[in-house]
Amino acid sequence: MNARHIILVGAPGAGKGTQATVLSDVLGIPHVSSGDLFRDNLKRETPLGLQAKGYMEKGELVPDDVTVAMVRDRLSQPDCNEKGAILDGFPRTVEQARSLENVLEQDGKNIDTVVYFQVSEQELIERLTGRRICRNCQAVYHTLFNPPKTDGQCDVCGGELYQRSDDRPETVQNRLQVYFEQTMPLIDFYKEKNLLQSVDGQQDIETVRSALLDVIKA
Ligand code: ADP
Ligand code: ADP
Ligand code: ZN
After folding, report:
1. Which CATH number fits domain 4-120+168-217: 3.40.50.970, 3.40.50.300, 3.40.50.360, 1.25.40.280?
2. Could you tell me which residues come within 8 angstroms of residue 21 by beta carbon, excluding any fewer than 6 positions away?
3. Which residues line ligand 1 (CB under 6 A)?
4. Which residues are registered as beta bridge partners of 200?
5. What is the pLDDT of residue 218?
6. What is the pLDDT of residue 126?
7. Is 0.90 surpassed by the pTM of this model?
8. For 112, which DSSP code?
9. Helix (H) or strand (E) holding 177
């Protein structure tokens, strides 16, 4: 089968990462999260991580050229080259979307489907402020909506759960603002290209999952 590129678009907290993990397992396509790539670079204190740090802490977007170069590099690795990618959190600006088109086009590849997760602002705030992440494997939990079996501990690997510093209420507001201003225009961009599918992201995790599998015809 040819490489498939599926893009998940939605606000911070919409459930992209949660669903991307499932989709990646079901389809056998690598999950590529730009946020995870940045956090991994930050942890390893690479030049890229240090460059991104200030933006991430404030909830601003990292500049397009830096972000595109990082994702392009990930997509050129053998697993993505062969299978494609479930893109989560990228693109986030129209500029990034145009760059992605060029990157794929150069390899004779294209975008399969863009799925837009619709979730109300109130729900986003509750999801972000209760989110917990595994320090070891990046699995995503929620203190109320998707709690781990043992408090503070990852079900998958036993790793320690933590709260991202940008999930504190002060930064969450700014991230949502940035999303409305800089990422929302992507919805029309992909609608005009007839690539957009919408999913009601407000439903519970299982229901969103089956709606998602329906629209991408897994
Ligand atoms: P969320 O899952 O809550 O949407 P992410 O983990 O995707 O958040 O992103 C965390 C931070 O990493 C963002 O606030 C931003 O600083 C940076 N980032 C991630 N993806 C991108 C992108 N495509 N363009 C620019 N910055 C990005
Ligand atoms: P994103 O990657 O879009 O920022 P996440 O997948 O990290 O979003 O989800 C944000 C938070 O909301 C996490 O704590 C996650 O456990 C929780 N969550 C995800 N999907 C749902 C859902 N359908 N209902 C309730 N909570 C959810
Ligand atoms: Zn874990």
Report:
1. 3.40.50.300
2. 31, 139, 140
3. 12-13, 17, 34-35, 38, 55-56, 59-62, 67, 89-92, 96, 166, 175
4. 118
5. 62
6. 97
7. yes
8. -
9. helix 169-178
The full set of domain ranges for the chain reads: 4-120+168-217
Which residue among the candidates 4, 83, 109, 131 is catalytic per the annotation?
A: 131
Nearest-CA residue for ligand 1 atom 18 is: 35
| CA-derived radius of gyration, the chain | 16
Q: Using CA positions, which residue lies closest to atom 19 of ligand 2? A: 15
- Fill in the DSSP letter of residue 154: -
Strands 140-142 and 161-162: unpaired
Please report the pLDDT score of residue 217 as a whole number.
82
Q: Which of 39, 92, 127, 132 is catalytic?
A: 92
Atom of ligand 1 nearest to the CA of 59: 14
**Residue with CA at minimum distance from ligand 1 atom 12:** 35
Q: How many Å lie between the centroid of ligand 2 and the Cα of residue 173?
A: 17
Any catalytic annotation for residue 16? Answer: yes
The string over 71-84, giving b where at least 16 C-beta atoms fall within 10 Å of a residue's C-beta and e elsewhere, is beebbeeeebeebb
Q: Is 131 a catalytic residue?
A: yes
* C-alpha dihedral (70, 162, 141, 17), degrees to nearest 10: -10
State which residues of the chain have pLDDT below 50: none
Is 175 part of the annotated catalytic residue set? Answer: yes
